[in-house]
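Annex B. Sample input.
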Amino acid sequence: MGMTWEDFKALMVEEFCPSNEMQKLEEELWNHTMVGANHAGYTDKFHELARMVPHLVTPESKRIDRLFGNSFYGYGCKW
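Annex B, continued. Sample output.
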């Protein structure tokens, strides 16, 4: 019997991504800030982290909120 892609990914995460390392990545994404005017570096790192902890940026509305912070909704920029 075959395995779904989602089941395979879950097994890979369970086997190769210790929970303490995943927690570090989650914290890094939560605390990710831009230094100076390095927009490209900021977005590159954001997307790198988002690939590692997709549950924090799915659905797309969460990704937008994390990337732009509250500035997207007119509350001021976290940068």
